[in-house]
Every structure is written in C-alpha cells, then in structure tokens.
Amino acid sequence: MDWRGKHVLVTGGAGFIGSTAADALLARGARVTVFDNFSTGFREFLPTGEGVRLVEADLLDAAKINEAMRGVDFVFHLAANADIKDNLEEPRKCVDQNILATYNVLEAMRAAGVKDIVFSSTGSVYGDATVIPTPEDAPFPVQTSLYATSKVAAEGLLTSYAFGYGFHVWIFRFVSLLGPRYTHGHVVDFWRKLKRDPTRLHVLGDGKQQKSYLHVADCVSALLTAVDRAHEPINVMNLGHDYWIEVDASIALIARTMGVSPRLEYGGGDRGWVGDSPKILLDTTRLRRLGWAPTKTIEESIVETLRFLMETPYVERRG
Ligand SMILES: NC(=O)c1ccc[n+]([C@@H]2O[C@H](COP(=O)([O-])OP(=O)(O)OC[C@H]3O[C@@H](n4cnc5c(N)ncnc54)[C@H](O)[C@@H]3O)[C@@H](O)[C@H]2O)c1
C-alpha cells in the first residue's frame, strides 16, 4: 500500500499502540487524524508535525466520529478499554467502549463511504485454548472474560460489515505487547510494586503462567505488512512471538534489570485473575507467510519496556 497522501483516522492514537501506528503511518507519508478522548492516552505520545490533526472526543459521541470521518481513506481502530482485569467491575464500560464504540466507527465509515479498517482484537478470544500454538481457526466456544467477549462481538460487527457493505477488514488477535509507551500490563504492575517495596513482590497466580509477548514496533510492522499483502475482504491474523516466557522468568528479568531481589509471594491458583488465560501462544503462520517476522526477543522487549518506564516519570504519575 502506498500511504503517501492517504488520510488515515487512528482511533486511540494517543495510546500505546495507536500512537506508534500513527508515527509509522506518518513516516510513510500518510496524513493522520488522531481521534482520542485521553481516557488512558497521553498527550506526550501524540504524533507531531505536518499532516497530523487531533480530534479530542469520545467514540460514543456519534456526531463527533461522523464529522471526523469525512475525507478519510482508511481507519485504524485501536481505541478500546484495554484493561482485562478491571472489566468485571464495570461491565457496561467494556460494552460501551469496545462494542458500541466500534459500531459508531463502522457507521461513521458507512456514512462517509470509507471501507478499509484495521482492528485490534486479542488472543484472549481463544480463552483456555485447547490447541497450542493456537491457529486462527481454532474453536473458541466459551469466553472467559468480558474483554474478550467484547472483542468477539466487535469482530462480528466488522465481518458483518464486510459481507453486508463491502468493507475490507484486517482483524488482528494480539498477544500482550511491550516496548516504548507501554502503560498497562504486567511489567508496569511489577515495576510499580517493586519501586514501592523492593524487598517483596505479590504475584497473581502461581508464577507458572506461560505467555507470549511482542514488541510494539513488530506489531505495527505486522499491521502494515498485512494491509500491504493480504487482500481478502476479511483478513483475520494472529500476532505474537513464536515462544512464550513463564511469569517467574519475566519477574527474574525485571528484578535483575531494576537491581532488586524481592521475596515472591504468590496469590495462588493457576491464573492471575478471572478471565486470565494461563497459556498463550498463538500460531502466526498466516502473517509469517506474508513475509513478516518479529525482530526483538521477548526478553529484549521487557528490558526496553522497563527502560521506558524508568525514563518517563509522567507514566508513573498516572498509575
Ligand atoms: N497492549 C496490549 O498488550 C494489547 C493486546 C491485545 C489487544 N490490544 C488492543 O489494542 C488496542 C490498543 O491498546 P493499547 O495498549 O494501545 O491501549 P491504550 O489504553 O494505551 O490506548 C487506547 C487509546 O484509546 C483511547 N480511548 C479509549 N476509549 C476511547 C473512546 N471511547 N473514545 C476515544 N478514545 C478512546 C484512550 O485514551 C487511549 O489513548 C486496544 O483495542 C486493545 O484492546 C492491546
């Protein structure tokens, strides 16, 4: 895809992944409209320079997204309530932010005649997967978290719009991502706790959960590669590394990088929280066939994430 001169609307463009995607699109010559309500995004992450427009608004405000969609060629819909753990406290928020907001984006696209959309789903849709590494066509009859449920619903909306209205949709089921601008997830949780008390660390679950992670730059390069080379009306792709790391190993690396030796206290059980999938390793053959491969190891990504957190005090202030 030649992005030069294309006008791309990035929802969640002030967030971790959205801002990284916006930078990559701008570097390829696109014009970018960031649509964000700054609920979890940071002004410091916003792309700058010529070709950037900011719409500070909520996706639940249909008039605002309708207006922002005028003149747009392509949508990267990366805004969501991305916190898996907290969704049980406010299920309505999850439904609003992840399903209704997606519906508003799709309706705005339909009204403006925009048909191409990249969407960030999650590897959590597979729940407690029975096939590992998990391919895209693995069955997932039972949802274990509201977050994943909301993503399955959003995926359904996208594929229905592809069938019903001729949309082209690229749906990516990500593992957890790491790297610069990371502001939520296990590394920041452990980092915060260890800064407060370096002598001990409370760990959710038994420390044996095994999970694949991916660097955010490798994620964005995968999105762009897929848009370039996969041209079905509906393209569903897993995104992750080809190995996983145990939570205990991740903690050891975090502690070593921070120069601390905490005593570990386990919450117990085989998972961190209700809806947590203790084993996540996705089969990424589809993406790799397009010529994509990760460039950073999980370990490098963890260290880079910590470095970002240590050098970026404003992330700490939000926590
Ligand atoms: N980070 C991960 O590990 C991961 C893994 C799997 C999937 N995802 C998905 O990737 C996408 C991006 O996640 P992220 O990690 O960058 O999260 P993030 O919280 O850093 O970014 C989300 C952005 O969306 C904005 N936003 C949220 N609700 C909004 C609304 N109603 N209207 C306007 N803006 C709104 C926030 O302010 C924020 O800037 C999400 O869809 C998330 O579910 C993330």
| The CATH H-level homologous superfamily of the largest domain | NAD(P)-binding Rossmann-like Domain
Q: Main beta sheet: strand number and arrangement?
A: 7 strands, parallel
Radius of gyration: 19 Å
- The total strand number stands at 14
User: Number of folding domains?
Assistant: 2
First-last Cα distance: 38 Å
Please, how many helices? 10
Bound molecule kinds, no repeats:
nicotinamide-adenine-dinucleotide
Mean pLDDT: 95
CATH architecture of the largest domain: 3-Layer(aba) Sandwich
Strand proportion, as a percent range, falls in 15-25%
Description:
With 319 residues, this protein is an alpha/beta fold. It folds into 2 domains: 7-177 and 213-239, Rossmann fold; 179-212 and 243-318, UDP-galactose 4-epimerase, domain 1, CATH 3.90.25. It is 39% helix and 19% strand. It is built from 10 helices and 14 strands. The chain has helices at residues 16-27, 62-69, 91-112, 146-165, 186-196, 216-229, 247-258, 285-289, 298-311, 313-318, and strands spanning 7-11, 31-36, 52-56, 74-77, 116-122, 168-174, 176-178, 200-203, 210-211, 213-215, 234-239, 245-246, 263-266, 279-280. The strands form 4 sheets. Strands 3-2-1-4-5-6-11 form a 7-stranded parallel sheet, sandwiched between helices. The protein has a 3-stranded mixed sheet with strand order 12-9-14. Strand 5, helix 4 and strand 6 (168-174) form a beta-alpha-beta unit. It is globular and about 55 Å long. The model has no long low-confidence stretch (mean pLDDT 95).
